[in-house]
Amino acid sequence: MASIIYKNITKRYADGTKAVDNLDLEIREGEFMIVVGPSGCGKTTALRMAAGLEDITDGQLLIGDKVVNDLEPRDRDIAMVFQNYALYPHMTIFENIAFPLQNRNMPAAEIKERVRAAARTLGLEEHLDRRPKHLSGGQRQRVAMGRAIVRRPKAFLMDEPLSNLDAKLRVQMRAEITRMQRDLGITTLYVTHDQVEAMTMGHRIAVMRKGVLQQVGEPVELYERPANLFVASFIGSPAMNLVQGRIAETEGRIVCEIGSQEIPLADGLAGAENLAGYRNRKVVVGIRPEHLLDPQKTDPSLPGLAARTRLVELLPPEQLVHLELDAEPVLSTSALELAADVDKTSAQDLNLQAKNHRVNVVARLPSGRRYAEGETTRWAIDVAHLHFFDADTGEVLR
Ligand SMILES: Nc1ncnc2c1ncn2[C@@H]1O[C@H](COP(=O)(O)OP(=O)(O)O)[C@@H](O)[C@H]1O
Ligand SMILES: [Mg+2]
C-alpha cells in the first residue's frame, strides 16, 4: 500500500492539447479517491500518468515516497481496471484471475491461495472452473477486479469500470467495489463522470474541469460548501438552483434582491459581514432544491420568495416541484459556459428564461402534500443554507 501524489503535474499532448494543468493532489495511503468531471476534463489522462502509460510533461508523480516519472508501468506495482475489461474466453475463471501471477515464477500453491482469497472477496468461489461466457456481466466485471486484486498491488487505478453495465448492475457493483476497497484497504484512484458514483463511493472526491482541479473534499463537504459555481452545479441532483441576485442595504440591513423580491441576510447567515462588502453588486445566489421549504409547513415569518408552480413530478417518497421565479437567470459568460459543460442543453433554456424574466427552480419535498400547478405561493428559505458566488469569477463568497 502506498500514497499517490501528483505534484504540479501537467500533461500536454503532441498536438498542443493541455489535458491536465498543474495538478496537485494527494491520494493518501488506503484512501479511496474519486476523480470526477465532465467528459474531456482530463481524468483518464491523469490516471494514465499514474499508471505510467502516458508521459508526464511537467511536475512529479510519487508513489509512496518515490518519484516514478521515469519508471516503467510494470515496475510501479499498481493495478489498473479499465472500462472495457477483457477476459480470455478459452480460460477458466481461475486461470483468468491467476493470469497476472503466471509469469512471475510464483509457486503454484501460492497462486492457488491468492486466487482463492480473491475469489472469496468477490463472491466468485463457485465459479472458478467455469468459463467467462457462463457468467453474468457483473460477475465478469468481478473477475476483472480479481485479476487486479491477486497481484496485491500498492494501488488500484480504475477508469470508469462500471460505465458499460446496465443501471441495476451498476448500483450493485458500486456497493461491491466500495466494500471491497474498505475490506482490502488498498489505495484506490477511481475515475468517473458520474457524480452519483463519486458521491457514494469515495472517501474524498476531486472535481476537475478542463484539466484544472476545482476542489478536493469529502462528499458532504463538496455538497455543502462548494468552492465555486462549477462544483456547485456539478455535484447534486437535481442541481443547485442558480438565480441572479444583488446585494443591497435597506434601512441599515443587508439584503439580497432577487427580481423584485428581497431576502434579509443578516439573520442566521454566517459571513453576512463579507457579503456586506458586495453591496450594490450582482452575485449568483445558489439554493439547493431541499432548501426551498414547504410553504404550508414553515414559519411564515421566515424569509421567502413567491413562485409559481409550473409542474409537479411525483416520485414517492419525494416530489419535485418545478417553480418559476420572477427574477433573472444567471447569464454571465462563465455561467453559460458552465451550463454547457454540465448539461449541453441548458444554455438555450437560460436564454429563453432571461427573455421572459423568469427563472426555473426546483424544490424537493416529501410527497404527500399537493401543490396545484399554476398557483403562486410563497416558498420559505433557510437563509443559513444559501450559497453566494461572485458573478464574474464564479468563486464562492464566504
Ligand atoms: N492522445 C491524445 N492526443 C491529443 N489529445 C488527447 C489525447 N488523449 C486525450 N486528449 C485530449 O485531452 C483532453 C482530456 O482527455 P481525457 O483525459 O481522455 O479526458 P476524460 O477522461 O476526462 O474524458 C481532451 O480534450 C482530449 O480530447
Ligand atoms: Mg476518460
Automatic annotation (TrEMBL):
PROSITE patterns (UniProt xref): ABC_TRANSPORTER_1 (PS00211), ABC_TRANSPORTER_2 (PS50893)
Mode of membrane association: Peripheral membrane protein
Residues in ABC transporter domain copies: 4-235
Pfam families linked: ABC_tran, OB_MalK
MF terms in GO: ATP binding
CDD domains (UniProt xref): ABC_MalK_N
Subcellular location: Cell inner membrane
Translocase among keywords: yes
PANTHER family named among the record's database cross-references: MALTODEXTRIN IMPORT ATP-BINDING PROTEIN MSMX, TREHALOSE IMPORT ATP-BINDING PROTEIN SUGC
Name of this protein: ABC transporter ATP-binding protein
Source organism per UniProt: Rhizobium puerariae
